[in-house]
């Protein structure tokens, strides 16, 4: 996209340069026209040869025609230049809005990632706490089981002694 903008800018600069050359030529032609009019005025006063006057008038007419053609060309180039400027402006606006949309999207994704990181940290903290609680409960259950086994063993011993005593009685 940057290459397109660069190409459009280069084209715009080339149109600007052409526009300046045309303006310079128009100024030169205008100056020549003024000179020719001065010469025409002088020749009108000092008319010696009608043929030179006719030739000068033809040249003047040709220069006028050339000037008109250049003016038309200049107007056409001005229109083209404006079209190119408008196109570049629209492209730049589109590019800016796309950049803004991407910045917003990146910001939203960054915020979402931050929230997920917070959630993960909270879950990890809770998991660690639950793991400690589970270990403590397992230790308590192991102790209770050991006590239960000891009590069962004592019960069997006492029961065995009782049976032995009953048999003796």
UniProtKB/TrEMBL annotation:
Its main location: cytoplasm. One of its GO terms (cellular component) is centriole. Keywords: Coiled coil, Cytoplasm. The keyword Coiled coil applies. GO terms for biological process: centriole replication; de novo centriole assembly involved in multi-ciliated epithelial cell differentiation. It is found in: Cytoplasm. Residues 57-126 form a coiled coil. PANTHER family: DEUTEROSOME ASSEMBLY PROTEIN 1 (PTHR18875:SF5), SARCOMA ANTIGEN NY-SAR-24/CYTOSKELETAL PROTEIN SOJO (PTHR18875). This is DEUP1 protein. The gene is Deup1.
């Amino acid at each position: 996209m940057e290459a397109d903008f660069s190409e459009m800018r280069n084209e715009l600069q080339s149109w600007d340069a052409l526009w300046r050359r045309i303006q310079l030529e128009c100024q030169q032609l205008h100056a020549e026209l003024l000179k020719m009019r001065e010469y025409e005025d002088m020749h009108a006063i000092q008319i010696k040869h009608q043929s030179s006057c006719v030739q000068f008038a033809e040249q003047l007419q040709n220069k006028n025609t050339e000037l008109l053609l250049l003016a038309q060309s200049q107007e056409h180039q001005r229109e083209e230049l404006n079209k190119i400027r408008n196109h570049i402006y629209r492209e730049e606006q589109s590019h800016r809005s796309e950049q803004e949309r991407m910045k917003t999207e990146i910001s939203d994704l960054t915020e979402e990632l931050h929230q997920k990181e917070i959630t993960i940290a909270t879950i990890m903290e809770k998991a660690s706490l639950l793991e400690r609680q589970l270990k403590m409960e397992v230790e308590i259950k192991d102790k209770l089981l050991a006590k239960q086994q000891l009590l069962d063993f004592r019960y069997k011993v006492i029961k065995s002694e009782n049976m032995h005593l009953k048999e003796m009685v």
